[in-house]
Amino acid sequence: MSAPVSAGAVWRRVLPVWLGLMALxxxxxxxxxxxxxxxxxxxxFGIATTQAALVALLFMRLIEASALIRLTAACGLFxxxxxxxxxxxxxxxxLTRS
Amino acid sequence: xxxxxxxxxxxxxxxxxxxxxxxxxxxxEEALSYQRFGATFGIWIFIASEVLFFGxxxxxYAAVRAEHAEAFATAARExxxxxxxxxxxxxxxxxxxxxxASLASEHVxxxxxxxxxxxxxxxxxxxxxxxxGMEYRDDIAEHLVPGRGFKLPEPSAQLFFGFYWLSTGIHxxxxxxGIGLVARLIWIGWRHPERLPGNPQxxxxxxxxxxxxxxxxxxxxxxxxxxxxx
Lengths: 98, 230
Hints:
The complex is a heterodimer.
Chain A: H1 7-31, H2 39-59, H3 67-97
Helix pairs in contact in A: 1-2
Chain B: H1 28-67, H2 69-76, H3 81-104, H4 111-141, H5 155-191, H6 200-223
Helix pairs in contact in B: 1-2, 1-5, 1-6, 2-5, 3-4, 3-6, 4-5, 5-6
């Protein structure tokens, strides 16, 4: 992606992302009151994940970062996935037994 | 290193160079390019460690919520969704000005835009803390601090508010550090305007700010969007 040189070019790159983030915030807030039952948590955290991905890729510019930087960013998620999987293997097995 | 993503048309300043890059005897442009890459790489390693730190906090939340879903819904209904949503909007807007500052800092003609975006970022950060402070005041007045005299009868509702105070407190500390770092950049830009364009410290600070934004994006549904339909 070529770097912008005018103030207008900077705003054209970041303003659409911000509008998307604010729209997702409005949707998340509205859907929290919808009778979605067990899906409520999945929907609200799904929207949060989408927003975080937009921030990481477009505001923090991972989309144009080198492979090493992207790999470093992915490491945090990978290790967190191990943390969550192993802990939940224990927590959920005890929950189903009781 | 000739990574197009970190190439910049901003002027090269010998004062941006730090050890050990200036001792390698590289041409200045190449040394600064190495250093810029090293700075970005370093902050991402820090961010990955922070993801694990906050990941452990969210793990506590997820595990306790799996066991006490009803009590968590009851407790979460007590949080103030107006303050929460307002603060999310404030923080997302600060993310916008931070991203704009990072982009603008790569160009000398956009020095003033960089400076104003930094000022907007720090101001919005302070606005977030102000709203958070008002929310804390209301929470304390409503006896939502775990311990004796807690508002709700369910014991596990106190676990939710334990997480609420701990996570928002740690996030607030991170945001305060971020405001300090941005204020430092504003000071540099005010005293030495020529040192802002092309300075790797702008991108590093803005990446940190983006991370603090992301943490809040997950705290918002965890604290404010639970148990609302009931």
